[in-house]
Structure formats: C-alpha cells, structure tokens
Design a protein that fits this description.
The complex is a heterodimer of chains A (about 110) and B (about 120). Helix content of chain A is about 0%, strand content about 55%. Chain A has about 110 residues and is an all-beta fold. In chain A, strands 2, 4, 5, 9, 10 and 11 form a 6-stranded mixed β-sheet that branches. Helices cover about 0% and strands about 55% of the residues of chain B. Chain B is built from no helices and 11 strands. In chain B, the strands form 2 sheets. In chain B, strands 2, 4, 5, 6, 9, 10 and 11 form a 7-stranded mixed β-sheet that branches. Chain B has a 4-stranded antiparallel β-sheet with strand order 1-3-8-7, with no helix packed on it. In chain B, a hairpin with a 6-residue loop joins β4 and β5. The chains are: A mainly beta (about 110), B mainly beta (about 120). Chains A and B meet through β5, β9 and β10 of A and β10 of B.
C-alpha cells in the first residue's frame, strides 16, 4: 500500500530552527508537496519538489531525496505565527495525491 | 481569503436531516475537489470534478451526493449521515485536472460538520 509518514507533533522555541521530516512509499513519484494549515483555516501551499535537492523560499526550505523516499521542511527563525499543522503529500504515478496525517508544530516563547 | 469560499463554516445536523455544503471558487480553475479531514488522519479524497464532469468517486457512501452545476460551484448534499461522518470537509480547486503534474491546490477553510 501507499504510505506517508510524518511525526504527529513537534515543539520548538521562537527564533529557533525546526526540521519536519516526511518519508513516503508510493506507487511512482510525480512530486512532493508541503502545505501549511493553521487551526480552523484552509491548507495553503508552501512548496513543491520533484527533483532531488534543496528548494529555499525565505525562512522555509524543502529538501527531497527520491532514492531514500524522504523529504523535510526546514523552518528558520521561528515565529509564533508558524504554529500550525504541516501536511506532506506525494503525487503518485497516477497523479493521485497521497497525504500524510500532518505534523502539528507548537512554537513556545 | 484564498479565493475558495465554503459555507457554512460550522454545521450540526441530526442523523435524519438533509443538508448541503457549498463551495465557490473565483480563481477561474477548472477542477474542483471534496476532501474529508478527520483528526490525526490524512486527507481523504472524496470526489473530483473536471470541467463540471465527475471524474473520481473514491468509494464514498451514497449518503454523500456531489453536484457541480458549473466550474465555479460545487455542492455536497448530505442525508442520513452517521456520527462517524463528523469531520472537516474541505473543498479545493486547481487549474489543471488531477491527472497532470505539479497540480497546486487552493483550499477553502472547510465546513466543520458534527452529526448528532
């Protein structure tokens, strides 16, 4: 079966750096997405990786290793507003999006 | 505001009630989706519409009935639901259909449904 694994919850301190990992086992691969979802709000697109390597976008970076079935989202200079759930999703060979259950990130002062 | 609007934001209904969820997108997208989001579970794709035609129905019980009158509006009609159907129902839209790559989804804020 197809599976996306990510930690259920993580805690970090304001101003620090946190890395949220995502491992996947899917039937084929057509890209990996990260979405951010604040409580009671819509998930919003953060990043898309289809080639190996690091994509940097401001304070957020996303890394992909297709050979290892692994990605991470790196958040730098954490702010209180970064408290949210972070959803990892992989598009398989049939262009179906396979979602992880999300990682709830708690930022403490 | 994401450009995808869902109403109502919250809904409490009895198991014998009939209600409808509404989704409207102002982005000019041609694909729309219904997702179910339960606590600590992955998003579950329910229905997909491309150019108003239903292209996916992921084994969803018949007590959920979608309707897409045009490419900007999507409804989910609910009847005789069960308590386990309580969840956040998210609508999303995208420019391409689901079977092309790099599809970026725009989500609405969802309807929090409680079945009592």
């Amino acid at each position: 079966g197809q599976n996306i694994d990510q930690p259920t919850e993580m805690t970090a301190t304001e101003g620090a750096i946190v890395q949220i990992n995502c491992t996947y086992q899917t039937s084929g691969f057509n890209g990996l997405f990260w979405y951010q979802q604040h409580a009671g709000e819509a998930p919003t697109f953060l990043s898309y990786n289809v080639l190996d390597g690091l994509e940097e976008k401001g304070r957020f970076s996303s890394f992909l290793s297709r050979s290892k079935g692994y990605s991470y989202l790196l958040l730098k200079e954490l702010q209180m507003k970064d408290s949210a759930s972070y959803l990892c999703a992989v598009m398989d060979s049939n262009y179906q999006l396979i979602w992880g259950a999300g990682t709830k990130l708690i930022i403490k002062p | 505001e994401t450009g995808v609007t869902q109403t109502p934001r919250h809904l409490v209904m009895g198991m014998t009630n009939k209600k409808s969820l509404k989704c409207e997108q102002h982005l000019g997208h041609n694909a729309m989706y219904w997702y179910k989001q339960s606590a600590k579970k992955p998003l579950e794709l329910m229905f997909v519409y491309n150019f108003k035609e239903q292209t996916e129905n992921n084994s969803v019980p018949s007590r959920f009935s979608p309707e897409c009158p045009n490419s900007s509006h999507l409804f989910l009609h609910l009847h005789t639901l069960q308590p386990e159907d309580s969840a956040l129902y998210l609508c999303a839209s995208s420019q391409e259909g689901i079977r092309t790559g790099a599809t970026r989804y725009t989500f609405g804020s969802g309807t929090r449904l409680t079945v009592v």
